[in-house]
């Protein structure tokens, strides 16, 4: 049986710039803005369009070394992205599968970032603490990009 969780983060950053920084250029910004968590992001295959696979490498703060995610869907005009975990992370250890749907919506001069993750936990595995940590990590990433954009107002304009 699949389960899901959601989180919404309100920011003062414009939707287009936030989407570009948080998702399109995350391979550059992620390691710079959250070096305590991410050591690097590498495009394994493709060009960043649907079907592409990227690998996010983590520091020892994270209980696994990496996660490979496939871009399933991307809409640059509606600021939407859907990814699936294809290797690493808790795949095969705690979960059978996981997909995440991200949407950035304008709100006044700022935006709201919405994340819905759907997953199938392995039988008998409690993932409540993992979900809590994933939400905290996502919020931290969004806030880091928001701060970066505030300090660099022309970035991703």
Automatic annotation (TrEMBL):
Q: Which SUPFAM superfamilies match?
A: Bet v1-like (SSF55961)
Its GO biological process annotations read: abscisic acid-activated signaling pathway; defense response
Top-level taxon in the UniProt lineage: Eukaryota
* SMART domains per record: Bet_v_1
UniProt cross-references to Pfam families, sorted A to Z: Bet_v_1
Instruction: List the transmembrane segments.
Output: none
One GO MF term: signaling receptor activity
Q: Which GO cellular component terms, listed alphabetically, does the Swiss-Prot or TrEMBL entry include? A: cytoplasm; nucleus
Ranges of residues in domain Bet v I/Major latex protein? 1-152
Q: Which family does it belong to?
A: Belongs to the BetVI family.
Name the chain's protein: Bet v I/Major latex protein domain-containing protein
């Amino acid at each position: 049986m699949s389960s899901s969780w959601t989180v919404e983060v309100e920011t003062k950053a414009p939707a287009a710039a936030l989407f570009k920084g948080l998702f399109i250029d995350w391979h550059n910004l992620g390691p710079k803005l959250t070096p305590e968590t991410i050591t690097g992001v590498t495009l394994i295959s493709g060009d960043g369009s649907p079907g592409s696979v990227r690998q996010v490498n983590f520091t020892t703060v994270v209980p696994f070394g990496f996660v490979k995610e496939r871009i399933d869907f991307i809409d640059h005009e509606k600021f939407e992205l859907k990814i699936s975990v294809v290797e690493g992370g808790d795949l095969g250890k705690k979960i059978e599968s996981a997909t995440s749907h991200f949407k950035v919506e304008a709100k006044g001069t700022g935006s709201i970032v919405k994340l819905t993750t759907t997953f199938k936990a392995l039988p008998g595995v409690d993932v409540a603490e993992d979900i809590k940590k994933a939400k905290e990590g996502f919020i931290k990433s969004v806030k880091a990009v928001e701060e970066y954009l505030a300090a660099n107002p022309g970035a991703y304009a």
